[in-house]
Each structure stands twice: as C-alpha cells, then as structure tokens.
Amino acid sequence: MAKLYYEKDADPGIIRGRKVAVIGYGSQGHAHALNLAESGVDVRVALREGSSSKTKAEEAGLRVLGIAEAADEADVIMLLLPDTEQASVYESQIAPHLRDGDVLMFAHGFNIHFRQIVPPAGVDVAMVAPKGPGHLVRRTYTEGGGVPSLVAVAQDASGRARDIALSYADAIGATRAGVLDTTFAEETETDLFGEQVVLCGGLTALARAGFETLVEAGYQPESAYFECLHELKLIVDLMYEQGISGMRFSISDTAEYGDMTRGPRVIDDHVRQTMRQILADIRSGAFAEEWIAENKAGRPRFEALRKEGAEHPVEVVGAELRAMMPFISSGHQRLQDVSGG
Ligand code: NAD
Ligand code: MG
Questions:
Q1: Rounded distance, CA 162 to CA 142, Å?
Q2: Of residues 78, 189, 191, 173, the one with CA closest to residue 125
Q3: pLDDT at 340
Q4: pTM: predicted TM-score of the whole model, two decimal places
Q5: 101-126 burial, b for 16+ CB within 10 Å, e for fewer?
Q6: How far apart are CA 331 and CA 104, in angstroms?
Q7: Among 41, 25, 105, which Cα is nearest to 71's?
Q8: CA 298/CA 300 separation, integer angstroms
Q9: CB contact at 8 A, 134 and 34
Q10: How far is residue 200's CA from residue 176's CA, in Å, rounded to a whole number?
Q11: Which region among 194-208, 251-265, 275-289, 325-339 has the lowest average model confidence (pLDDT)?
C-alpha cells in the first residue's frame, strides 16, 4: 500500500528553524517562495544577475540575493531552475557553498537520477514535487488548500531528510492535499513516461492524427478542429471529476459503444509495444542522454520541431476559431501572467 502523508504527519517547526533559499522565481519558484514566507519560514529568493523577476519578488515582500550568496547563507536549498540549466548553475554557484548538514532539494528528479548533479556525501538530497503547475501551488495555498505532491529522499546524511522534506511540503500547502512517498527513480521515470506517452506526446499526436484524417477525407478543418481538439477538454474534465466510467455515463450510448469497441483498435498491441520501448529508453537513460546532447548542441531539433508544430494546420484553424471565443483566450492570458519569469 502506498504511503501518504498529511498535515498530522509533518512537523512545521523543522523548516521554520532553517534558512531556506529558493533558487529561481518561475512557475514553481514564485509559488514555493510566497507560500513558505506566509507559512513563517525564513526564505530568500536567489536570482541571477539582472533577472527581470527581481522587482516582482521584492514587490511581493521577498528578500532577493544572488545565487552563490543565497547558497552560502541558506542551509536548505530548493533548486527551481529549468531542469536543463540546473547542472551548470549547481557546479558554478551552489556546490562551492554546500556544507555538511545542508539540504539540497528538487521538484523533479531528472538531474539527480541521471547523475547530472552529484552532491557531496554530507548533504541531504530530497525532493518535494508538486503534481501541478506553480500557479496552482500558489492559488490553492491562498485558498486554504494545496496541490498533491511527491516526496523522496536520494541521500540521507542527517538521518532526518524525509522529516525536513515533509516539513517543507507542509509549508507550501502540500500536506493539505496529500504527499505521496516515492523515490527519485519512480518520480523521474513515471513523469517522463506520462508526458511522452499520454499527457503531451500521446495526446498531441492523437489529436493531430485525428484532425489530419478528417481533413484528408475532405471534411472542413473547422469541423475537424472542434471534434478532435476543442471537445477534448470537455471529455477530460469529466474523466478528471468522475473517472472513465463516469465520463461514459455522460456521453451517448452510441459514443460509449464506439469508445469501447474502437478505442482498443487505435491503441493496439503495436502502440503498447511502442510504449514499452519508450519506457525502456527512459529507464536505460537513452532519452536523458539524447536530450542532454540536444541541449549541448544548442537545441537544433527542438527548435525545428517547435516551429513545425506551430505552423501545423490544426494551429492555424484553431487560432481563428479561438479568436471568436474570447473567454478561452482570456483564460490563457491569465495563465501566462503567473508562469515564467
Ligand atoms: P520556470 O522555467 O518556470 O522557471 C525557472 C526560473 O529560472 C525562471 O525564473 C528563469 O528566469 C530562471 N532561470 C532560467 N535559467 C537560468 C539560469 N541559467 N540561471 C539562473 N536562473 C535561470 O521553471 P519551472 O517550470 O518552475 O521548473 C522548476 C523546477 O520545477 C524544474 O525542476 C521542474 O521540473 C519542476 N516542476 C515544474 C512544474 C511546473 O508546473 N512548471 C511542476 C512540477 C515540477
Ligand atoms: Mg510532470
């Protein structure tokens, strides 16, 4: 049985007795820093020289320092930079300031699991990974709730790493929702698998392939867009609220029969075999190696694919249709405002 922690399992006093540095003020960084501060934690935000987030963080009442300075001052360091930037910033500005007894924390396991960052033996290495975007970590906290999170320990030099991580999770509101005990390996591998196979890769490829099939057969791109992309949200909302059976309860019997008989033909044995291969590439480190090399080369393939994706007909027709639905684009605008930094 999985182990879940709630408020009663965390000691809020532990993290209040430490000096915490939140490195980065993006999606996760702003949410962690503000929630920690409001939970009574001595928190400082660390930004690079000339960062545009400095004013924002200071206006929110937070103390802002340089990264090396914050790493030196703090004894709990939460790294909330993009995963592809963490290793070089760690090497140059954090590692030189780590002392035995410090705690190095992450919100995703990639760099520890794939050994891009190898902290010294005297340091605790832990993870508190919210299972939701930063703006929700912030908003749910202000509403008295929290976002479910994962907690894991990769290195327990002090013998108290899990208690410290749980206390941190409590201070960002996560124990109000539930904190699941896991490992860096499980978090990293399932996170990559989920985004590649289901949530992002599988879903976008499915929507595009369905759209292309209808357009190729001569149907209007507008019809294809509504069918294969716009309606997805309505179905996903039902699954999110009530599971797959609950969603099926709300659709017509015709839709349900088509779902149950045709779905397994789309996601057939061949697709499942591909899923296993993708998982194997994640577990062997082959995906990580490929992505790290792509970054070192300046991201040529990433940029080309991003451009190609943005020019796809489903995007062109979608932009026109969404422009007629201002309630959707205003929601998007709100999201933009709170993420990135
Ligand atoms: P982000 O891209 O929103 O923010 C990163 C911040 O780092 C920005 O303020 C940016 O200006 C700054 N930055 C970028 N490069 C830098 C550099 N070289 N030196 C100094 N500062 C730099 O990142 P994020 O999405 O909040 O992700 C942070 C961590 O949280 C990652 O490990 C990610 O996997 C994890 N995570 C993110 C989410 C999410 O919802 N975005 C959810 C769970 C876990
Ligand atoms: Mg994820």
A1: 25
A2: 78
A3: 35
A4: 0.91
A5: ebbbbbbbbbbbbbebbebeeebbbb
A6: 35
A7: 105
A8: 6
A9: no
A10: 28
A11: 325-339
Strand arrangement, sheet containing 76-79: 4-5, 179-181, 149-155, 124-130, 103-106, 76-79, 19-23, 42-47, 63-66
Catalytic residue among 108, 135, 230, 270: 108
Give the binding-site residues of ligand 1, using a 6 Å CB cut-off: 24-29, 48, 53, 80-83, 85, 89, 107-108, 129-130, 133-134, 339-341
Question: How many angstroms is it from 136 CA to the middle of ligand 2?
Answer: 14
Q: Using CA atoms, how far apart are residues 324 and 311, in angstroms rounded to an integer?
A: 20
Which structure tokens are listed for 104? Answer: 């190095």
What is the atom index within ligand 1 of the atom nearest the CA of 48?
20
**What's 53's DSSP letter?**
H
What amino acid is encoded at 106 in this protein?
F
Pick from 55, 73, 72: nearest CA to 64: 55
Q: Which ligand is nearest to the CA of 46?
A: 1
CA distances from 311 to 202, 243, 301 (A): 19, 34, 16
Residue 332 pLDDT: 55
Both structure tokens of 95 = 């590692």
77 beta partners: 21, 104
260-309 pLDDT, tens digit each:
999 999 999 999 999 999 999 999 999 999 999 999 999 999 999 999 99
Count other C-beta atoms under 10 Å from residue 314's C-beta: 20
Question: Is residue 312 annotated as a catalytic residue, yes or no?
Answer: no
Angle, vertex CA 282, rays to CA 104 and CA 192, nearest 5: 65
